[in-house]
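Morning!

As promised:
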Amino acid sequence: GEDVEQSLFLSVREGDSSVINCTYTDSSSTYLYWYKQEPGAGLQLLTYIFSNMDMKQDQRLTVLLNKKDKHLSLRIADTQTGDSAIYFCAEADNQGGKLIFGQGTELSVKP
Amino acid sequence: DAMVIQNPRYQVTQFGKPVTLSCSQTLNHNVMYWYQQKSSQAPKLLFHYYDKDFNNEADTPDNFQSRRPNTSFCFLDIRSPGLGDAAMYLCATSRAGRGGRETQYFGPGTRLLVL
């Protein structure tokens, strides 16, 4: 069945770049998403990429998609303490639009 | 600003006492979703409404029900909450058209505590 995997933790220093990785199994997914969740809050859509794209850049965020390896990454440039949160990768089920989430990566940014 | 609103943000209920969580949206999206998120886990889809059509996930317990009286509002009813139902409940909306379902936008969530 469909599955999305992420590493659970990432720690970086303020000002460094962060790279959060994700692998997925459903090659028919049309869209892949990155959501951010701060403690006690809902999910904030950060960015998404259509499956026929390799890269998308949006200010400090860069998404890379390797369709052959079914690998998605989110790079955050100049990481700030306010970027500390849990980041969820999700793929959209091609049939019904259902989101399949990874376990979430907890990003910790140290001053 | 167009948004997804959830009330209340925190809800405390007693074991076995029915509880209703509310979601409203000003995005005029035709699809509304309810997710359950337990601590340190990914959100898990419970069910969704495509317009007035209710779509239940196969593993959603019967204890969970939903109502959508109009486009803007959707309710999650937990008939007899157990301790294991304590979680964050997230509402999301999306637009569906000929191209399929579009991006889901989430509300801030309601944290449910069962005593």
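The CA atoms of residues 94 and 104 of chain B lie 5 Å apart.

Hope this helps with the figure draft.
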